[in-house]
Amino acid sequence: MIRTEGVTDVTEETFAAEVLESARPVLVQFTADWCGPCRQLAPVLREIAREEADRIRIVQLDVDRETAISVRYGVLATPTLMVFRAGEPVKAIVGARPKRRLLQELADVLARVDPTGPDRTGPDRTDLDAFPKVRI
Question: In terms of DSSP H, where are the helices of 3-113?
Answer without folding.
Answer: 15, 36-51, 67-72, 99-111
